[in-house]
Automatic annotation (TrEMBL):
<dbReference type="InterPro" id="IPR050366">
    <property type="entry name" value="BP-dependent_transpt_permease"/>
</dbReference>
<feature type="domain" description="ABC transmembrane type-1">
    <location>
        <begin position="158"/>
        <end position="350"/>
    </location>
</feature>
<feature type="transmembrane region" description="Helical">
    <location>
        <begin position="127"/>
        <end position="146"/>
    </location>
</feature>
<protein>
    <submittedName>
        <fullName>ABC transporter permease</fullName>
    </submittedName>
</protein>
<feature type="transmembrane region" description="Helical">
    <location>
        <begin position="283"/>
        <end position="308"/>
    </location>
</feature>
<feature type="transmembrane region" description="Helical">
    <location>
        <begin position="158"/>
        <end position="181"/>
    </location>
</feature>
<keyword id="KW-0812">Transmembrane</keyword>
<keyword id="KW-1133">Transmembrane helix</keyword>
<keyword id="KW-0813">Transport</keyword>
<keyword id="KW-0472">Membrane</keyword>
<dbReference type="Pfam" id="PF00528">
    <property type="entry name" value="BPD_transp_1"/>
</dbReference>
<keyword id="KW-1003">Cell membrane</keyword>
<feature type="transmembrane region" description="Helical">
    <location>
        <begin position="328"/>
        <end position="349"/>
    </location>
</feature>
<feature type="transmembrane region" description="Helical">
    <location>
        <begin position="90"/>
        <end position="115"/>
    </location>
</feature>
<dbReference type="InterPro" id="IPR000515">
    <property type="entry name" value="MetI-like"/>
</dbReference>
<dbReference type="InterPro" id="IPR035906">
    <property type="entry name" value="MetI-like_sf"/>
</dbReference>
<comment type="similarity">
    <text>Belongs to the binding-protein-dependent transport system permease family.</text>
</comment>
Amino acid sequence: MKQIWQHIIYLWRHKIGFKAAAAYLLLLLLLTTVLPWLPLPYEPNYSDVAHVYQSPFESAIVSNKARHLLGTDSMGRDVLSNTMYGARNALLISVPVMLLATLVGLVLGAGAGYYANRGYSMCAGSLLLLLLCILCFSYYGIYLPIQVAGMGLGGTALAGSLLTCLLLLMLLFVIFVLLHYKTNFLQLQVTVPVDLMVLRLIEGLSTVPRFVLILVLASFIPPSVVLLSLILVFTLWTAVARLARAEMLRIKQLPYFEAAQSIGLSSGQLLWRHALPNLSGPVLVAFTFGLGGLLALESTLSFLNIGVPTHMVSWGRLIADIKSNTSAWWLVVFPGGLLSSTVLALYTCSHYLTQSFFKNNKG
C-alpha cells in the first residue's frame, strides 16, 4: 500500500491530467455523500405536472415555487435533482459491486497463479465440507434472501433465512469435526487443480455475454438492485482474475519470491507479505478501469428499463425520456455529460496509473 500511495502522490504532483481527473472524482464523491443535506429545490421524484418538459435556465417563478434550473422531464421532475441523485445511486451500486468483483477476482486469480502446475493439496473431508458449505450458502445465504426481498416479506423473514444459513454452516462444521478422525476416507489427501478449475470457470462465463445474461434474467425476474449486483459481480470478476493470475505467475519467477520460498515461508506468508503488495498496483488499475465501464453499463441497462427498479433515479432512465420528445436536449446533455465526464475521469486515472506501474516494473 505504501508504494501505491507513493505512485498516486507522484502523479498528483507531476501529472496535471491525473490531478484534474482525481480532483473531479473526489469532488463528485463528496457531493454525492452530502447530497441528502443539500438545499435542493425539489425532491428527485417530485412531479411538477404544470411544468412538463420545461426548458432549462428559465427565470419565471410560478405559484411561489422555485424554478427548475436545468429544466424538467416528461413527468415534470426536476432534472438537476434527478441528475445529482442519479450520480449518487450509480456510485452506490457500482463501487460496492466493483469492490466485491475485484476481491473475488484477486483471490481466485492469485490462487490459480500460485498453485499453477501443482494444485492445492487438502484432505477429502475438508474438500467435501467446502462444497457443502458453498451449496448451503448459495441457497440460504443468496437465493432465499433475494426471494424474500422480492416478495416483500420484511426484515424478519430475511433475518430468519440468514440465521438458518449460519446455523446450517455451524452444524456442517460440527459434523465434520466429529467424523473427521473416525472415517479414513475423510483423511485421504487429494490434489485440487485450482488453476485448471479457475481457467475453465473463466472460459465458461466468458462464453455468455454479460448483457445477454442480464436481458434473459430480466425477462423472468423484476428489476432488483440485489439481483443486478449479484449478476454483475458474477460476471465482472473474470477480468480481474485473468490479470491477477498473470501477475502471480510473473511474481513467482522473481528472485526475491524464490528466496522467500527457499527459507521455508508458508503459502500464506508468501501470498500476503510478498505477492499481494506487488499485485495491488495492477489490480487497482483494473478496478479503476472496470468501474468506468460498470457506470456506463448500469446507465445502459436503466436506459432500457431493465436495470434498477423504477422508483430509483438513474442517469439512463432520465436520458431515455428524450424518446418521447426529441427536442428536449437537456435530458441528454446534463446527465449524459456528467456520466461521460465521470467515465472519462476514471479512464484517465487508470491510464496514468498504468503508465506509472509499468515504468516501475520495467525499471
